[in-house]
Structures are given as C-alpha cells and as structure tokens.
Amino acid sequence: MSWSWISKIIERKILDEVKKQLNIDVSRSEVVGVKNFRQCRFCLATISEGCVFCPSCGRSRD
To answer: Ramachandran region of residue 37, left (φ > 0), alpha (ψ -120 to 50) or beta?
Structure first.
C-alpha cells in the first residue's frame, strides 16, 4: 500500500466527519460572485480558490 492511497482515505473520512459535525456541505462553495478559480489536478474540475477539497473527486487540491 502506498501512503498517498492511505492519506486519500483519511482525507475523505475527515471530510465526512466535518460534514456531520457542522451539518453543512463543505465540498461546495455557497459564495456568489467568487472570481478566483483553480483547476483540480486530478479530474480537471473547476473549484473556487477557497475550497480545499475538489467537489467532484474529493481530493485535496494540494
């Protein structure tokens, strides 16, 4: 097993726990008018600058 594979599982579990604790969807930005966007390195989806995780594939942008 590679460490990157394990870290992806941990990231997903942490994201799910944050969603449960805060009762919000942290993968989507609700801010209107955000002009700073980046592209996910893995699935090439467009994500806002403030998002840490890609809403499409769930991977960390860093």
So the answer is: beta
Name the helix (H) or strand (E) containing 21.
helix 3-22
Q: What pLDDT digit, counting tens, does each position of 11-60 carry?
A: 888 888 877 777 655 555 455 554 677 788 888 888 877 778 888 888 88
Distance of alpha carbon 28 from alpha carbon 61, whole angstroms: 14
Reading the block at residue 31, the tokens are 């801010």
Sequence spans of domains, the chain? 3-48
Q: pTM of the prediction? A: 0.36
